[in-house]
Amino acid sequence: SPWTLACYMVEGRSSKTWIDVKTCAYKNSALMHQILDQLTTSIIHYLNAQIEAGVDALMLFDTWGGALSYVTYSEFSLKYMARIAREVKREHCGKRIPLVFFTKHANPWLEQLAASGCDAVGLDYTIDIASAKQRIGEQVALQGNLDPHILLGSDSLIEAEVNRILAAYQGDTGFVFNLGHGIDKSTPITGVETMLAALRTQDQIHRTGK
Known about the structure:
Layout: H1 2-11, H2 19-27, H3 29-52, E1 58-62, H4 70-87, E2 91-92, E3 95-96, E4 99-103, H5 110-114, E5 120-123, H6 129-136, E6 141-146, H7 155-167, E7 175-179, H8 189-208
Parallel strand pairs: 1-4, 4-5, 5-6, 6-7
Antiparallel strand pairs: 2-3
Helix pairs in contact: 1-2, 1-3, 2-3, 3-4, 7-8
């Protein structure tokens, strides 16, 4: 997302506090908005080129939007994501290209994110999926929610978490199962295999009723 890119551009590295980028945003908001505007324009051009190249879906990662305050998130992050939703070409060769927005730690802004013009909202693992579904309704689809560190746990724990998440959408559509953030490099492949096996089992039960 524009804000996340700006974070890395201004800080020059990852950070726990994002002091430099927040100082820029709060002391010189005009400069920050200029940076974000130019980044947004570049992202729109890039995503439109991806659509022309034949992608089936787009997902925008706003990894550091949650580092902003409740008020400043709308000003420095969501505003520019909404512009991307308006200006990206969402139809190509007669096919709708869905656009997914993901903000890490988005619980305070879930309704605003769903109303920003995207087709789906990616959920991190700090949000209860049943609650998110109730808050958003059928406005957009949902994606994600499994804590990737669950894959470090036992088979029974992984299976239980997969089943818990899927249970929130039992009998309904509009959900894409996914992790609630990136997978850690230390994750054993057996954890991933257990997750996939649990998903396939639930899919078979859904399709056949047994």
